[in-house]
User: Fold these one by one.
Assistant:
Number 1:
Amino acid sequence: MVIQSLPLNPQWEAQQLPDALPHGQGVKALQEVLRRAGARPVDRQQWLQQRREGWLGKLTELCHTIEHNWLAPMVAEGQLQINPLKVALNEQLIGSYEAPGLLIEIGTSVVRLEPKGTMVIGAAGRVDLQGPGGLATLILNSQDFPQKPFPACQFNWQFVARSPRIQLIPLNADSFADALLQVAGLITD
């Protein structure tokens, strides 16, 4: 049986239990895994602080890439306008904080790139792109998270497509432009 590392102790590695451990030996198996892992309590506050700071850093990078790389030519041409947005969040464990977002104006359409939080199930964070044409959800994903500390993980942003089945679409300039057109109500499926 393989035991995965606990999310709140990113230094533990997955442990392989011997098959010789009999069923019904839960406490003994737990003691053996903890002994092998050299388990020690994690400084929970430090771990949560690293997660919040890492999340805010990833949001800042995302906003910068969208505003200064992908949409900058359209802003220069006067085709759209971008304004920074501060979103007040209050998450269990992490507390209250302000997170960066964007307000994108295209003609009469206003689209919000709005962070929803880092304490979400199945990802290291969620951001919604919302406008008159609907909603597109971005998640911050990593193969390493939460087994490794937030700063040590390699992350990528992905859109979550929900129909007909859940599909993850990598975020890049083209996928962002497609989503922006759709949520701004400028095109339909």
Note: The longest helix spans residues 44-70.
Number 2:
Amino acid sequence: MAKLLTLDEIMAMAIQMEAGAAAFYRRAAGSVPAGKLQAMLSGLATTEEGHRQTFEAMRRKAAEAAPKAGTDPLVGEGGLFMAALASGIRVEGSGADSRALDGVKSADKVLSFAVDMEKEAVLFYVGMRDVVPAPDREWLDRIIAEEKQHLATLARELGRAKGNLRSTP
């Protein structure tokens, strides 16, 4: 069985994921030729940095509201789901993610990796929704919507890069 996590640990993972995603997108932007794709990747880096700041604020707020509560393991379905998910999630910005871009100049490989990264983020945050305090769910819902938008944008660009989609204005 996966180790039960605390709310504070889940928030810390979300912060690390967003910081790593921002770093990934900055590095990815530097690995593709200047143009529309590079601008999109740079924009994603900026958005992910904003998500990191939001999670940091949520973590501080949770700690101030109930300092002891954030240190108790989360039980119940939501806690068990997060524990199981966290045990297999790749944390963006890890060595594996950094090495994934080594020598990569192909847009489809960069985009394919980014699509997988965004899928994991959406799944993690949807699960996280069940364990964060109710007042923070509105912020989390916004982040989930933005991550889903990232995923759709990246999937569309990946289709174009592979020649499966026509370009649209």
Note: The domain at 7-161 is CATH 1.20.1260.10 (Ferritin).
Number 3:
Amino acid sequence: MTAIVGVTAQNTKAVLATYALPVWVITAQLEAVYDDIGVDAAKTGALLSADVIAAVADSNGRHPTPLVVNPVLRASTGAALLDPEAVEVLITSLLPLATVVTPNLAEARSVAGGDADRRTLAERIVARGARAVLITGGEGEGSDLLFDGAVHIEIPVAWVEGTATHGTGCTHSATLAAELALGTPLADAARRAAAVTAAAIAQGLVGIGEGPGPVAVGQASGASQRVRTR
């Protein structure tokens, strides 16, 4: 189930506009799911504003649920997807509720409060309240880095040649949340998320628009995903 927190106007080249929904609508969506269907694990994506972050944190506080926080700060096109003043609210309100936080390297630097090597960044993020952090990718890195507060674990990542990379972070964090919902241990869930994301890039929709096309999850092995363009 999905609770929509905002609407964007975007294509493969740019995010043209964003609009955060009223908090009461977001809270009503969350309560509707918790009240009837139930939640085994949850994940966040682009939350857009401090008010939305506070509403999501309040909901998780009332309904404790394994939570994957994907701290989306910018779109892959570079457009901001979170108000700068809201970053601190995310750190203070949402990180302490997270089972695991899944920043890319740039997001890890922002959440950690400065630049450093990946292991130091992971330790700083845990020190700021997260129980575990999974830094995806890095400059020249062939692995993701998982830190559970005690041990650093390198998660091998297959290098995939592909330009359809729109949605990689969402795919990764959603797979991680799904695995945690099934009771998969965190390190194994991280390995599964890395594998699913790599396959989604390899099978991505190449040729849609002028920018990076979207990844494709769950396609048949070897299926052609090259799209005819006009």
Note: Residues 186-202 form the longest helix (17 residues).
